[in-house]
């Protein structure tokens, strides 16, 4: 099968995000100018540079009470900071609960019963029990083609790692099993790993 996205795929559901899979989940926490906190998952998320460390996520829809975007991007525009909370398999239900389309100003930490803590380098909340948290200073928001498509880039200014995930000096993902997004309503979990030596190493 071949299709041109501009012409449509003719399938019951869009296969695009099932093809680009698995995708790590950026569980983004923010605080607005009014002091209200927000927490939402984004599956268009990844690390994008080492030095300085940088990450990005994309928001691809909007809410009537936020104009051209959603709560996360709206609050990042106000504050210039955000935190990426890493999602473990054990937190799958809590993460999913924070994807609900709640009114602006609703605190998803409270709604989903998630313990929060303050970040160290930025004025922002974080998921206290997450395997890791990346505190980020906004570097740029890029408007992408299409309606309400924004890519948010940030420099990591602080890193939290849960002690039980550090084994023999290595941050071991098998200690917490990262949750990843697939297509449709599907997810997957990392429960095994293997190493490959690069040519020339």
Automatic annotation (TrEMBL):
<feature type="domain" description="Flavin reductase like">
    <location>
        <begin position="18"/>
        <end position="173"/>
    </location>
</feature>
<protein>
    <submittedName>
        <fullName>Flavin reductase-like, FMN-binding protein</fullName>
    </submittedName>
</protein>
<dbReference type="Pfam" id="PF01613">
    <property type="entry name" value="Flavin_Reduct"/>
</dbReference>
<dbReference type="GO" id="GO:0010181">
    <property type="term" value="F:FMN binding"/>
</dbReference>
<dbReference type="InterPro" id="IPR012349">
    <property type="entry name" value="Split_barrel_FMN-bd"/>
</dbReference>
<dbReference type="GO" id="GO:0016646">
    <property type="term" value="F:oxidoreductase activity, acting on the CH-NH group of donors, NAD or NADP as acceptor"/>
</dbReference>
<dbReference type="InterPro" id="IPR002563">
    <property type="entry name" value="Flavin_Rdtase-like_dom"/>
</dbReference>
